[in-house]
Design a protein that fits this description.
The chain contains 9 helices and 10 strands. By secondary structure, the chain is an alpha/beta fold. The structure holds 5'-O-[(R)-(carboxyoxy)(hydroxy)phosphoryl]adenosine and zinc ion (ZN).
Length: 335
């Protein structure tokens, strides 16, 4: 089956709408809210108001770019959660109204499952089982994938997410929010071994980044007391060393899990998968294990509706539909 699906993503601070024909993405419009920058983090109230303002325009743009009339759409996929309740509600309400008006089915999609499958949007003939490393601003998970819709979380962070660790470290370095991409940028000319920060010693497949954060904080406090210009003078080395600490921790855990579970490939997803060092190290890990490594192209790394529609088309094939009383979910739920 190759249905035309319109997908809506509004879980955090990106209003995104995509149109898919089967698994083929015809359009993927992402409107990233800028209003949060001055607050150093996403302000939920502002996020929902902004989604409300942009959703209709984003839908129109997605239909226009896909060169399709709304009457041709056969199902509406939407993000059920996890996410910010006010933000989710905008997408959920809009999806329900449009499905009702067009008299077509609704498909609810787990945002994390969409991230897990995002590396496969542009791939054919993928072999399972696989190990997926999901790294975003709110999540850090290792997921064992048995098949497209059959997966389980085998490890996750017990405190901060990897993206959060990047953003908090960037804040300490007085970089703007979200600081992850800026750390990546400044790290390019820095020495990753210039400074050593304590690494997480947590066992099994779980992660912890709060210790790294504290270690960076104490180190910077001490050094700036001795030299108030320490950060400015060492910005590139600091960024490279922080990035190295976070990335090596992620890669070590992924390697351990991939070896133990004997998977056929590894895949990377979530906003932090845009990090250049993580991308390079992940490809190297695949080479070392002698299995393919799949990483989404940049447009599918951060929040986007194409990945929601991609999961939607698998659910459509199985005729797994939602209903007008579906509720958004703030917290993580089973994949
Ligand atoms: O998946 P995402 O778009 O949003 C959710 O959290 O769901 O991820 C956003 C996170 C932010 O923490 C941001 O700083 C981080 O991804 N990020 C990066 C890079 N690009 C985005 N972190 C490090 N290096 C990057 N290049
Ligand atoms: Zn996300």
């Amino acid at each position: 089956m190759n249905p035309y699906i319109l997908a809506i993503e509004s879980s955090c601070d990106d209003t995104s709408v995509a149109v898919l024909h089967g698994n083929k993405v015809l359009s993927n419009i992402v409107y990233t809210q800028k209003i949060h920058e001055e607050f150093g983090g996403v302000v939920p109230e502002l996020a929902s108001r902004n989604h409300e303002q942009k959703i209709v325009l984003t839908v129109q743009k997605a239909l226009q770019e896909a060169q399709i009339n709304k009457k041709e759409i056969q199902a509406i996929a939407f993000t059920k959660g996890p996410g910010l309740i006010g933000s989710l509600l905008v997408g959920v309400c809009f999806a329900k109204s449009l499905a009702l008006a067009l008299n077509i089915p609704l498909i609810e999609v787990n945002h994390m499952q969409a991230h897990v499958l995002s590396p496969y949007i542009e791939q054919e003939n993928v072999e399972f089982p696989a190990l997926s490393l999901i790294v975003s601003g709110g999540h850090t998970q290792l997921v064992y994938i048995k098949d497209y819709l059959d997966m389980e979380i085998i490890g996750q962070t017990i405190d901060d997410a990897a993206g959060e660790a990047f953003d908090k470290a960037a804040k300490m370095l007085k970089l703007e929010y979200p600081g992850g991409p800026l750390i990546d940028k400044h790290a390019k000319n820095g020495n990753p071994k210039a400074f050593e920060f304590s690494k997480s010693k947590i066992a099994d497949y779980n992660f912890s980044f709060s210790g790294v954060k504290t270690s960076i904080l104490y180190f910077l406090q001490k050094q700036t007391q001795l030299n108030p210009n320490f950060i400015q003078e060492n910005l590139e080395d600091l960024c490279a060393s922080i990035q190295y600490t976070i990335v090596s921790n992620l890669i070590q855990k992924a390697e351990k899990a991939a070896k133990n579970l004997n998977v056929k490939h590894i895949s990377l997803a979530g906003g932090v998968s845009a990090n250049s060092s993580l991308r390079t190290e992940f490809v190297k890990l695949g080479e070392k294990l002698n299995i393919p490594s799949y990483i989404p192209s940049f447009q599918y790394c951060t929040d986007n509706a194409a990945m929601i529609g991609f999961v939607g088309h698998f659910l459509y094939d199985k005729q797994i539909f939602s209903h007008q009383e579906a509720e958004p979910l703030v917290k993580n739920y089973a994949l």
